[in-house]
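Issue 218. Parser rejects a valid record. Input:
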Amino acid sequence: MNTDNLEIYDGHIHTQGGPCDPPEVFLEKAHSCGIAGGTIFSVHSAKYRPIPNYDQRAKSRIDWILEYTSHTPGFLPYFFADLSDADILEQIEYARKGGIRGYKVICDGDYSVGDHLEAIAAMAETGLPVMFHSGVDNYPHLSSPNNRPIVFEKMLNIRGLRFSLAHLGWPWCDEFIGTYAKFVFAQGMDGPDAHPSMYVDITPGTPGIYRREALRKLYLTGYNVRPRTFWGTDRIVNDYKPDLARRMIARDIAIIDEIERDAAAGVITDPYGMPKNENLKPALFAEVWKAFNKEP
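Output the parser choked on:
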């Protein structure tokens, strides 16, 4: 795998409670596998999963991630928000004023985005992006039906919202692609400012045997996903694994190279025409992440 000329950003890194590598150690690990920057989420709320002897109050979690990322240039702090909190609007504003760069949301428990559109609209009003989990939630909560990709259609009329759905919605990958098309078509019909801008976060999600099929469907179904698709690992800042990141990069580069070859050879055709699907890697690994986060 040669990534010498490829700029790479990891757009999906979690923080867990407990021991955590100091910022300089995390940076050394990330840089050792070619990761130049990315997105780091704060610790989640206690309602999502309690951590013994750990302060999971919203302000504490926000302050911690802001302090940590002040020592990790290139890596942006996101607040892992719980939409069901009674004071969520105050949390959103506290995070914005503190310098947070975006919001992370998993619809945990018996609620979906449709139950908290006011909070999502408040996030949109900050001008900051919102990253949503989509697909099965692996924790033992009754939440997966509320994270199916099609559920996010309920946000269709939130103006100014810039959001991503993660994990290709696995196991609902086809539904995920259709949901992306829905938001693109809506903007095409009514104008880009009338509806949210959806981005695709290809963070696994998709287990190994499904990865190639899911990415081929994403790029070769016929929708132009190149300007809206970015990459991530779903790993943790506490103990970032460079060897695992390298393997993930190599696997996805091989799949993307195959997609580019098949697109150039016209292996997949459609009477309505196909996007060019060329020069995909710079967009996937860097350009789209920068656009999503409004980074230079």
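Fixed in the parser; the record now loads. Residues 8-293 form a domain with the TIM Barrel fold (CATH 3.20.20.140).
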